[in-house]
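From the pipeline queue, job 12 of 40. The input is one protein chain; the requested action is below.

Action: predict structure.
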Amino acid sequence: MKILHVTGYKPTELGIFKEDDSRIVFIKAALEKRLRAFIEEGIEWVIISGQMGIELWTADVIMDLKEEYDIQIGVFPPFENQDQRWPDPIKEKYEELMMTADFFKPLYKGEYQGAYQFRAKDLWLIDKSDAALLLVDDENPGSVNYFYQATQRTSKEYPIFTITPQDLEETVEELQMQDPNYWDEPDNY
């Protein structure tokens, strides 16, 4: 396996409305843990469409991991200017990613033209990657369900790995237990 696609929820689907939400730290930590394992097993590229939320947070994690590993990131939005209606702080992150990614290319020239662009993007990402890592809750699949359904319709042997709410809870506990003050509080025993 050389190319991994990572996707998941948009921030609003997680109830996250600001870039400084403390939950993002835990999500990035869970992503980093899984991505490190994939990198150590030999993946060379992580590809995303660059959508808000899990995908942009994945890009942040990969950019940090580049300091330790030889890992590349490719960004393939479904069309140009996908960030046109995004909040300014997220738009700035996306524009920085466009300049710093190892590869960046929209799949369609021009602006949004129709939902078919999103369906085509999902199929293209499945075709170009060896597997996917999804942050998803089976009980509330949200928009990531469109990608998952596309994987079910392909004849390609396509492994799907997940980060679940339980995985996130374990990450939160691990990070809390690393805090020396955690052990000083009687409520934590």
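Job complete. Residues 3-188 form a domain with the Rossmann fold fold (CATH 3.40.50.450).
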